[in-house]
Structures are given as C-alpha cells and as structure tokens.
Amino acid sequence: MALSSSLAYHPSSAALAGPSSLASGSRPPHPNLADPTLTQIPTNFPPFQQQSTQFLAALDAFVLRGKEEIIFRKETRERLVKEAEEQKRRMEEGIDEASRGEGKLLEILEKEASDVAEVQTTISDLKLNLSTLESQERAQTAELKEWTVKVEQLRAEKTLRLSKEAEIRASISRDLRTLENALGFKVEGVDTDKLLIRFTNLSPDDPSKVFSLLIDLSSRLYKVSSISPPLPSLPYILETLNQDRDFHQFLRRIRKAFQIEAN
C-alpha cells in the first residue's frame, strides 16, 4: 500500500506545476515524500471499499480453496500411500504364499521324480525278469518237446514190449499148461503172500490124486501152512530151503518126497 500511495497522482502537484510547465513539456518537479499530505490516500469512498471487500473475499476464497486443495491432496496422498502399502503387503503375502507353494510344489515334484525313478527301476527289473522267464520258458518248452518225443518213443517201445511180453506170456502159458499136464504140477497164488502148490501123476494106481502144500512167503523164513498128505521129511526139506534159498530144488525135493509117499 505504501508503494502505491507514493506513486499515486496527486491533483495539487498538477496544479502547482501550472499550465506553462505542462505546455512547455518540461518534467514536473519530484514530489516531496516528506509531505504528509502526499502519503495520505483517501479510503473512505464507496468504490474503493467495495473493491477492497471483493478483493479480500476473493483472496479468502482463493486461500480457502488452496487449503481445501492441499487437504484434499494430502488426504488423497495418504489414501494412495495406504493403498500402496496395503497392496505391497498383499503382494508380499502373495509372494510368501507363492514361495511356500513353490516349495511344496518342488517337494511334490521331487517326490514324483523319485517315484518315477523307482517305478522305472521296477519296470526295468520286471522287464529283466520277464526276459529271463521267457528264456527259461523257451528252454523248458524245447526240453518239454524233447521229453515228449522221448516219452512217445518210450510209450511206443513199451507198447511193443508189452505186446511181445503178452505173446511170450501166452506162449509160456501154453507151454506151462503142457508141462503141468505132463508133469502134474500147478502153482496158484492164494491171498497176498501164499502159494498153493499141487502135484499129480505121482501115484501109479491113481494118477489124478492131488498132493499139495500151502507155503507162506510173508517173512524171510519160508513156512508151510498146510500139506496133504503129511510128509515126515518136510521139516528137513523146509530147513534146507531157508538155508540155501533155492526154491527150484525145494520143489524137486517136495515132489520126490510125495512120489515116495505115493509108492
């Protein structure tokens, strides 16, 4: 305000200069700032008061808007800072959770890798075992074929042998019947371990008369269970049989003893 009042135009200074000064174009004299009449600006006229009031009101409104803007920006900044901090916290929590999840995932992957390696090892072992079993199966199949051929050969040989044995038995049976009829000798199995031996053609008076004995073979020592007719020499003949184990000679001795008894 002081600077404005010092530069304001005062009417008294223009009057003091006079028309001659202005007309001549000479510079008016410098006002005396020490004069109190020059520093006093009238402020009591209505237009000035109105403009001052409006200016002050506008200034107050500007200041108020500035304060509100400052407060708004401060609150906005604080809100944005809080949101940024909250977002940062959530991001850090998400990163921590992701790190933990990554650790668990790595553990799962490692375990799965270990399981896969174990399964692959098991599969390799099974393939090796399968290959071994297949080789064994091929070898056993080949061996089975060889044995099958041998069994068929043995079966054919056995069939041929049985056929020949049957022919031989039939021939022996015929010869035996012929000899039995000629010699009057017949042997039959009784129970499990006994033989019934019968002789005929020993008595001149009765060729059909039967001389028989039942011999027990159930133990190492031969025993005679029954004999008809009785022979006094039987104990000696039986003792000789148990000593020399010659059954053929025993039959010859028994037949001769029966023949002596018949005569």
The ordered string of helix (H) and strand (E) elements is HHHHEEEEHH
Helix content: over 70%
- Tally the helices: 6
Strand residue content:
5-15%
Largest sheet: 4 strands, antiparallel
What is the CATH first-level class name of the domain at 184-262?
Alpha Beta
**CATH-defined fold name of the domain at 184-262:** Copper Amine Oxidase, Chain A, domain 1
Distance between the termini: 196 Å
CATH superfamily of the domain at 184-262: Chromosome segregation protein Spc25
CA-based shape: rod-shaped
Enumerate the strands of the largest sheet in spatial order, edge to edge or round the barrel. Answer: 1-2-3-4
User: Which residue ranges are poorly predicted, with pLDDT under 50 across at least 5 consecutive positions?
Assistant: 1-25
- The helix-and-strand class reads alpha+beta
| Total DSSP E strands | 4
Mean of residue pLDDT? 81
CATH architecture of the domain at 184-262: 2-Layer Sandwich
Q: Cα-atom Rg, whole angstroms?
A: 77 Å
Region (Disordered): 1-37
Coiled coil: 74-157
Organism: Phaffia rhodozyma
GO biological process, one term: cell division
Key attributes of the depicted protein:
9% strand, 4 strands, four-stranded antiparallel sheet, 72% helix, alpha+beta, disordered N terminus, Copper Amine Oxidase, Chain A, domain 1, 263 residues
